[in-house]
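Morning. Coffee machine broken again, so started the prediction first thing and wrote up yesterday's gels while waiting. Chain of 328 residues, entered below exactly as on the submission form.
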Amino acid sequence: MFQALLLTQSDDRVTNAHIRALDEADLPAGEVRVAVAHSTVNYKDALAVTGKSPVVRKFPMVPGIDFAGTVVDSADARFKPGDRVLLNGWGVGETHWGGLAQQARVKADWLVPLPDAFDTHDAMAIGTAGYTAMLCVMALQAHGLTPGDGPVLVTGANGGVGTIAIALLSRLGFEVHASTGRLNEATHLKALGATEVVDRATLSAPGKPLQKERWAAAVDSVGSHTLANVCASLKYGGTVAACGLAQGLDLPASVAPFILRGVTLAGVDSVMAPYARRIEAWSRLARELPREVLTANTETVGLADVPALAQRLLAGEVRGRVVVDLAR
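Came back before lunch.
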């Protein structure tokens, strides 16, 4: 038997979250069973747990798009008992039981070996948010961005993607500007590596199709008017790596930045990213993200704390990353 956070849905489509004792036989099909040591709570997890968005496609569901732990048994030759592994995405926590449980059974193709530089807590202090941040950095560099091109804006700067993106970019030599609605967190953002803090309100309302050129590139996890204004404010030839929708799914923009300034809008997906890109991202995280960044940017909770934490996260009250210790 093991403990899990189980989501059910009532007849009136209200999502309910309960801690339940489950049996190995309850686990879905898959080649590899993992003893989960740590998971995390991302924005998508918070939407799933609260039912604020139809993230979960079938019930009952164990949420959690991330986990890190140790292989218990495997029908796939690539993994053996005792191997340390991690998982990000692949519909886990949406269509397949996820990481907010002490055990998981998943497809072998979904697992990545845990880099030697990290323990399972470190891996979830990074999680999908930090892994996505690295994918965004890789996308900007693939479009030729260098520190000499000018400042890089990070929106949603106090969130999981934002905080890790700031730390990564600053350590690569970039001047980083951080956009946030919580200006009281400026000290923390500057400690991560931001040189300037921008009030979110200057970007979140409808703006002109083409604006003053301010940034060479951007990492955006917000979407909607914010992303439109960011595109309108990029320098000639600039690139924005877009990976989130905290403000909304819409993009009320014009083609002006793209056809008059040669701006590139690069979409970044972490859920279905191919194996080679995942390995590159996690290898770079192991080399380029100092452990002290994780320590200062992470809080740790237990499984029973997740429902209340999900509400706080959606309300914008959570800074950085949250690790869920499945032994608590």
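The CA atoms of residues 137 and 169 lie 7 Å apart. Going to sketch it on the whiteboard this afternoon.
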